[in-house]
Amino acid sequence: MAAPAVEGAAVTALRAVLHRIQTAAERSGRSFKDVRVVGISKTKPISLIREVYDAGHRCFGENYVQEIIDKAPQLPEDIEWHFVGHLQSNKVKSLLAAVPNLAMFEGVDNEKIANHLDRAVSNMGRDPLKVLVQVNTSGEESKSGVDPSGCVELAKHVKLGCPNLLFSGLMTIGMPDYTSTPENFKTLVNCRNEVCKALGIAEEQCELSMGMSGDFEQA
């Protein structure tokens, strides 16, 4: 009888994170099913992503265009790829062309990139692309994202002025040392309240992407 395969470290870590998420969701009165986990796979080899995929995970995120362009064709088509972070306008076409299973772009940080995405999606005949507006909740000059005071106008532009994009919510990336936690989460929640009021949509129609492995319980 063959010995059972030894579970890799990445899969073990994934299971631990999912357990923490379930515990945090129950504590806050939310359903675990309502929480999406995006496995950030930047700089990780194809073999490791495949290992996590084989364990049942389907949602992965990258933030380097060339890396996702190289990886996506080598992996199963049912992966839901997310591009996370700033995207240069001159790389929009190559990203969309190489990754037909790009499920979401996180995030739109100005009208220019929104317009480029909208035109590219239209020209390629793709289904509308889900996007999140990125908000710079920590106030760092080096961080991409619209200032909280401008999130309503940018969300309006995406929803009303970009027919080939699906405004799906807001996202933020806090400081690497988590010193902006939980204030940046509170700021994003406040932004959602303002956006939903301005667009006349329910909060359920405006998801929030926030929290990393070290602070998602607070998110």
TrEMBL record:
Its cofactor is pyridoxal 5'-phosphate. Pfam families: Ala_racemase_N. Keywords: Pyridoxal phosphate. This is Alanine racemase, N-terminal. The lineage of its organism: Eukaryota, Viridiplantae, Streptophyta, Embryophyta, Tracheophyta. Belongs to the pyridoxal phosphate-binding protein YggS/PROSC family. Gene3D superfamilies: Alanine racemase (3.20.20.10). The modification N6-(pyridoxal phosphate)lysine is found at residue 42. Residues 14-216 form the Alanine racemase N-terminal domain. GO terms for molecular function: pyridoxal phosphate binding.
